[in-house]
Write a structure and sequence with these properties.
This protein is an all-alpha fold and 218 residues long. Helices cover 75% and strands 0% of the residues.
């Protein structure tokens, strides 16, 4: 197995090399493979996942998997490429001209919704970060860092104008990530401790509203 390249790259599989317009069956098979891989990677991590596991989850043969992708790393990188746009969107939606408390609480809600609706994607991201971001590093530098700097500057301006209470903007965002993504990354624990999913989700929303509203109110 080749070592991770340490960078994200443009994916060109053998199928796309044969035809510029993949057939519906090819598109469907790629989608099935990626969904199966997301399930395997989110539960086993990159190192623990194998092509055999992905093939079994997809209901396809291993040679069929390799027809569409060159190997495990290419599948993983494809998923990470798809994930980053989705991952950054909630932070991009924070409006610098809006009501500061409403904008930040809205961001909390979007992150919590993402954790509830996309738990596998959250765990895929978490596993990659825990390994030192060998494949996602460039996206963190080129995508997340400029957006993070831009939005922490917005939060700082809100604090300087007295619209929200002063705190550390960077650690404010870190705390939002930690408290919302917990419900995806530690779902097995949360489901045991609070088995009622509706009550768990509603309770999380109410509690996070309370703590961040109190923190932000001047």
């Amino acid at each position: 197995m080749s070592k991770p390249s340490g960078r994200l790259f443009a994916v060109t599989d053998s199928a796309s090399a044969k035809t510029k317009a993949p057939s519906r069956i090819q598109q469907r098979n790629r989608s099935v493979i990626l969904d199966a891989a997301l399930e395997v990677f989110s539960s086993e991590g990159y190192r623990g996942a194998t092509l055999d596991q992905i093939a079994k989850q997809a209901g396809l043969s291993k040679p069929n998997i390799l027809y569409y992708f060159n190997g495990k790393e290419e599948i993983h990188v494809t998923l990470l490429n798809q994930l980053m746009t989705t991952w950054l969107d909630p932070l991009k939606e924070m409006n610098p001209n809006g009501d500061p408390i409403k904008e930040i609480i809205g961001y909390v809600h979007r992150k919590l919704d993402m954790a509830i609706e996309l738990p596998r994607e959250s765990r895929l991201f978490a596993n990659e970060i825990l390994q030192g971001a060998p494949r996602m590093g460039p996206h963190l530098t080129a995508g997340l860092k400029p957006l993070f700097d831009e939005q922490t500057a917005v939060i700082t301006r809100w604090m300087d104008s007295g619209k929200i209470a002063r705190s550390d903007p960077a650690h404010l965002l870190f705390s939002i990530w930690a408290t919302t993504q917990h419900y995806a990354d530690f779902a097995a624990q949360a489901e045991v401790l609070l088995p009622d999913s509706n009550a768990r989700e509603q309770g999380a929303r109410v509690f996070l509203d309370q703590i961040f509203t109190k923190l932000l109110t001047p």
